[in-house]
Design goal:
Elements lengths: L1 E8 L2 E8 L2 E5 L1 E6 L8 H8 L4 E4 H6 L1 H10 L1 H5 L5 E4 L2 H7 L6 H10 L4 E3 L11 H21 L4 E3 L8 H13 L5 E3 L3 H5 L3 H14 L6 E3 L8 H6 L4 E4 L1 H7 L2 E4 L2 E4 L11 H5 L2 H6 L2 H29 L2 H9 L3 H6 L6 H8 L10 E2 L9 H12 L7 E6 L5 H4 L1 H9 L4 E6 L2 E4 L11 E2 L6 H14 L4 E4 L3 H6 L10 H14 L3 H5 L4 E5 L6 E6 L2 E6 L6 E3 L1 H10 L6 E4 L4 H5 L4 E2 L3 E4 L8 E5 L5 E7 L3 H6 L4 E8 L1
Parallel strand pairs: 4-5, 4-11, 5-6, 7-8, 9-10, 10-11, 14-18, 15-16, 15-19, 24-27
Antiparallel strand pairs: 1-2, 2-3, 12-13, 16-17, 20-21, 21-22, 22-23, 24-26, 25-29, 27-28, 28-29
Helix pairs in contact: 6-7, 7-8, 8-10, 12-15, 15-16, 18-19
Bound molecules: guanine and zinc ion.
């Protein structure tokens, strides 16, 4: 089994998951196949929806004499006639629905191995939401015990060890930590079906986040029993990689159609609001009239079309860097989901999610509503304004929100203000305070807001603004009369460009970066076409380049030397194992398995210094993973190297 990150956004990732029966791209949906009654066969699914992986139930196969014999003789792939990866479940869900099941935890793992399942599942103990904490803890401990037995018996089958712990975050996190220690291959989050059935999405978010906090991040995470596309974007953004759907068939048998915003009864539809091949073929009224069995098949197909389409939209959003936009838009179409996003406003959760958030994105940040200002990337910017940015002068003139970049929009006014003397310029923006020097940096310039937002966004931005300007003298720009009120100062204005590169480098690399980078004679080369900064030289050495796309720096080797000298180990560094040193010296990228340690402040897409274990600087590159990931992934690239010594 292999699981490798290819792209990412939010805490989501696009990965390649490989088993003996091939490779699938995650996030992905595994339709549930009941070997006794297939509404649609796996082969048909592959043809119609591009289904890459399915899940079936080993407990059901084991219980039926004929199925059992065929599966043992010919393998589960022959049994359900599918040659791609197959996951099997264990009977846990049946024991939750029907009470005790007559199968032993060891026996069912061996059986899954013997029918050559690609991913087998332990017989975990289903933790229900209404359990006492004590009862939930017992179930969780028994689950861990069974997982430990399971890994010994799994052979070359990948083993899924389910996280339980009911709705108690400490139990979930603990269970995830304990399970991570025994190195399973796959982590389902279990016991969540009743939460989803009752639209208890806030509880669901707590279950996912607490599980993720305890988990080894290098393994696939599966939200067990989640088959409704409504929750796919949010669950993916929180780090879930797999879903399984029996909902498509269950709802179809009930004449219910799945949509991304919820479920509609066929009887309530006067039109089919969908353009999948099934809905194009029928009108609502003729669908109502066709034979019950055929109708269920048609609706099941529609349900899968809609579900797989949502998965594709999610993968697109990850690649484009606008997954949070999709999550928020979906939440705006369902009040329960909208409520659940409030969990993401809790500081502890923001801190957790921020670690996975890439430094910048391909697409501008789009406002969708009151949740936008609570995104992890905004949380990071606010934190860094306080921990990394220092204003240059005593007094500050504040301009209201305007067109971006603000330095263009307000250029005339700024010129007149600066004639009065040295003064800070700050924008009171929808995202909070934006010092003028940072106005081209992601996401300050790369964000789109309506002219007026909402009360919560305003309150949050104002709160940050007030904290940021506390104990400082601020003058609000009210046109020419502000100029008249300002006193002349005889301080000499520093070079505006120098202020800009100083502020950006401190925000990007950490406090003190500017001081160490810009000690000598600074020369800034600008683009002839756009007038924007391109390359920064210090004493004739090229130390930084500024990216036009996100207003941040690309580090050059001479700049890296300066940061290496002044930032103490392990700041900004990725530290290599000995074996990898010759490869990196040769210009090769850094594979995760060769990372010995790394700065915990580095984020995906951050620039970093690549060093050996004696802190000799070898190369510079761009991180693709954060520290947690670099230390746990055993496959894939951790740092893309760009220049070496
Ligand atoms: N299917 C739905 N929920 C669960 C669960 O918690 N455990 C297992 N094994 N299967 C499930
Ligand atoms: Zn349709």
């Amino acid at each position: 089994m292999k699981f490798e990150i290819k792209d990412r956004d939010a805490a989501a990732r696009i990965c390649r998951f490989t088993t003996k029966h091939g490779t699938v791209t995650t996030p992905n949906l595994m339709p549930v196949i009941n070997p006794n009654k297939m509404l649609i066969t796996p082969k048909e699914m592959k043809k119609l929806f591009g289904t890459e992986m399915v899940i079936t139930n080993a407990f059901i196969i084991n219980k039926d004499k004929k199925l059992r014999k065929k599966a043992l003789d010919e393998g589960v792939h022959k049994l359900i006639d599918f040659d791609g990866p197959i996951m099997t479940d264990s009977g846990t869900f049946q024991s939750y629905i029907y009470g005790d099941v007559d199968v032993e935890p060891i026996e069912i793992v061996e059986f899954q191995r013997d029918i050559r399942s690609d991913v087998g599942t332990i017989l975990d103990v289903f933790g229900t939401p209404n359990q006492t904490k004590k009862k939930a803890e017992q179930g969780m401990k028994e689950t861990i015990k069974r997982a430990k037995q399971g890994v010994k018996l799994k052979g070359d089958m990948a083993l899924a060890c389910t996280i339980q712990g009911s709705i108690y975050p400490e139990l979930r996190e603990n269970c995830a930590k304990e399970l991570s220690k025994i190195f399973p291959d796959f982590f389902p989050i279990g016991g969540v079906v009743p939460l989803m059935e009752n639209q208890r999405y806030s509880d669901l978010v707590r279950c996912i986040l607490s599980s993720k906090k305890g988990l080894d991040p290098s393994k696939p995470v599966h939200l067990f029993g989640a088959g409704h596309p409504l929750i796919f974007p949010l669950a993916v953004a929180l780090g879930c990689d797999f879903f399984d759907s029996s909902a498509y068939a269950k709802y179809a048998n009930d004449d219910r159609l799945i949509f991304y915003w919820g479920t509609e009864k066929l009887e309530d539809l006067t039109e089919l609001p969908c353009s999948c091949p099934i809905c194009l073929k029928h009108t609502a009224s003729d669908l109502k009239k066709i034979d019950k069995k055929e109708r269920a098949r048609e609706i099941a197909k529609h349900n899968l079309f809609v579900s797989f389409t949502e998965i594709k939209k999610i993968r697109n959003a990850i690649a484009n860097g606008n997954l949070w936009e999709l999550v928020e838009r979906r939440a705006n179409s369902n009040p329960y989901l909208f409520e659940a996003l409030k969990e993401l406003r809790i500081k502890d959760n923001k801190d957790f999610l921020e670690q996975f958030e890439p430094t910048s994105k391909n697409k501008a940040l789009f406002y969708t509503g009151s949740q936008t200002i609570h995104r992890p990337i905004v949380h990071r910017c606010h934190n860094r304004l306080f921990s990394r940015y220092t204003s240059f002068f005593r007094d500050t003139v504040v301009f209201p929100e305007g067109k971006k970049p603000y330095s263009n929009y307000y250029s005339e006014q700024i010129k007149r203000v600066l004639k009065k003397g040295d003064i800070n310029i700050l924008i009171d923006s929808h995202l909070g305070p934006v010092p003028l020097e940072l106005d081209e940096m992601y996401p300050f310039a790369q964000s789109v807001f309506p002219d007026t937002t909402d009360n919560e966004t305003e309150e949050k931005a104002t709160k940050i603004f007030n904290n940021f300007t506390k104990n400082k003298k601020i003058i609000c720009w009210k046109g020419d009369k502000t100029l008249e009120e300002m006193s002349e100062s005889d301080e000499k204005r520093l070079n505006v460009d120098l202020l800009r590169i100083s502020a950006v480098s401190d925000m990007q690399f950490g406090k003190g970066a500017a001081e160490s980078l810009f000690k000598g004679e600074i020369r800034i080369v600008k683009s002839k076409k756009t007038g924007k900064m391109r390359n920064i030289y210090c004493d004739g050495k090229h130390i930084l380049s500024m990216r036009a796309s996100d207003g941040m720096f690309t580090l050059k080797m001479d700049g890296a030397r300066l940061l290496h000298k002044s930032f103490k180990f392990p700041s900004l560094r990725v530290i290599l194992e000995k074996d990898a040193v010759p490869f990196v010296k040769d210009g090769k990228s850094v594979f995760a398995k060769f990372v010995k340690d790394c700065d915990s402040e580095l984020r995906p897409l951050d620039e970093c210094l690549i060093v050996d274990d004696k802190d000799n600087l070898l190369a510079i590159g761009r991180c693709l993973l954060n520290r947690l990931e670099m230390l746990s992934f055993k496959v894939g690239v951790a740092v893309k190297s760009r220049e070496h010594m």
